[in-house]
Amino acid sequence: MTESSADLMDETNSLAVSLFSEILMADQLARSRLSKVLPKGMELSHFSVLNHLAGVGVGLERSPAQLAKLFHVTRGAMTNTLHKLEMAGYVHIRPDWDDARRKMVAISPAGRQARDAALAGIVPLISEVVSDLGQDRVRATLPILRELREKLDDET
């Protein structure tokens, strides 16, 4: 490797480390701020599942395995989250009529209300961030972040 290509590799590595350091710190700060505005007793993982189920459509369901895969968590972690949501009355979990070994999960009316209450706290926070950064800059950043997410998802 020539000295110039070694310098280029060092620059690429440095850029990669800087990029991921910023992403990880932004993730940590965002999670911390979002957790503070969620309704009492709701965790960010609970909101994420409720938000997904609310977007699936009325009456449509997902299996715990599908949710675990979607959120890149173990089935055990998803089962724990779903159990807490069920105990709060936010989801309905029923046997799969076609395969009794599986279960199906749907958001309940109370879960939809809890998700809406969470959004009422979250939207002002994230809207302020977008306003501070500027809509044009955020729009320009989204395709890059989306591509990065897809690239990372391809490698899992």
UniProtKB/TrEMBL annotation:
GO terms for biological process: response to stress. Residues 16-154 form the HTH marR-type domain. It comes from the Bacteria. One of its GO terms (molecular function) is DNA-binding transcription factor activity. InterPro entries: HTH_MarR-typ (IPR000835), MarR/SlyA-like (IPR039422), WH-like_DNA-bd_sf (IPR036388), WH_DNA-bd_sf (IPR036390). This is Transcriptional regulator, MarR family.
